[in-house]
Amino acid sequence: MAAPAHVTHPPLVGAQRVLGTLALSAATFMNVLDTSIANVSIPAISGDLGVSPTQGTWVITSFGVANAISVPLTGWLAQRFGTVKLFIASVVLFVISSWLCGLAPSIEMLIAFRVLQGLVAGPMIPLSQTLLLGSYKREQAGLAMAMWSITTLVAPVVGPLLGGWITDNIAWPWIFYINVPVGLLAAVVTWSIYRERDNPGRPIPIDKVGLALLVIWVGALQIALDKGKELDWFGSPLIVGLFVVAVIGFALFLAWELTEEHPIVDLSLFKRRNYWVSTLTVSVAYGLFFGNVVLLPMWLQQYQGYTATAAGMALAPVGIFAILLSPFVGAKVQKVDPRWFSTIALSTFALVLWMRSHFNTQADQLTIMIPTLVQGVAMAFFFIPLITIALSGIEPQRIPAASGLNNFARITAGAFGTSIFTTLWDDRAAMHHAHLTEHFTQADPAFQQTMGQLAQSGLSPQQAAGMVNRLVDQQAAMLSANDLFLASAVLFLAMIGLIWLARPVRSTGAGADAAAGAH
Description:
The chain is mainly alpha-helical. The chain folds into two domains: about 400 residues, MFS general substrate transporter like domains (Growth Hormone, Chain: A, Up-down Bundle); about 55 residues. It is built from 23 helices and no strands.
């Protein structure tokens, strides 16, 4: 069956464009927030539902697995049902599943509703990109992406802070209930503005084999990444088995999708140099970014005595420059080679992580906040130019598929980053602990002097040894974090060379064709 002609709608103007941007951004913010808001609430959820914290972590894992599976299906679903209808359905179902999560009477029901929430959330982020591009003039596409990028980068930082505050001051179900008014308002406003701008769906066949393989390899990979640290990685037959399933499933998935007439995921997009360069860059960079977003508050709370709320406050300044500079970047990305803006972002991320690699256990809150403030500059220059490069020259009807695949790679890389960073942090801390204590013997005068002073203060030998060990743990964790901060800085610098493999983007900018006719 021939595809219907793609209808080009004029850009929105005035209040409609402002309201449309706010509604789409609110839906995106709500979605991204839910990837991290539950993290600090797991102890409270586990206690209320009568399960162990280990079982409680499935509240996070279940959402991540379901979300990773559904994101790359966006392109196929948009063709089948229409972009606007799919987006509205996604938001409404997300609201319903969020409400059900808050009402869940048991951990089993909560996990089931989180799976539903993750599945319906998948299309929201890539479709919000598509709708925004269609709302602005061709030369203003960068500004549209500026609005989108603010929500995507700030939400993961705000999530733990908001989740911690709600759990401490209200009750954990409200981390889900807050989605209800936000989502309903976003859905109503979006439908009122965009319902006449939808393109009709068409009954394209579903690639059942491709879908089954996608579920198998993505599900196995996400569960392995989420549970690997807890189960001792390759020391666990379950984790080894999951990785084997993921690798074989991925190989079969590639072979099938590259030869299928109507693939569930359009892998032919990777034939475009700018698309694969940008997607690879944004994935690796986001994996590093998200790994550090997880690592820093963990260090602050576990070894520096910060509460969840205080750790969130220490990270809050990241949004200042991100919000102030994103509109500037969006306006200028049409006139400046986006590779230069990407270089600024990657260089600034490297600078921030180099600064953090010099932290010590005496670092005060101001010392911790300064790199966080500077990081806002990097965030403002990060997403907009990379999206501009990725979507340049892609046909309007393929934008949902391109955006969905790009976001899938980014989300998966974030899961990799979290698992790799938390594992390496523990491993490096154990190594540093061993090095720091190898001289703690009866023949070491400094050790003997310290133990003597603690004994004089009234501590028993066992208590004194315990205190020394806690201090060593603190130093080892700090040195381990410094190692990861420095390694991340080096990797960010290395990616500058990668982004310059992309071809120059025409001055018309981010997916110029996309902006002109996304809807």
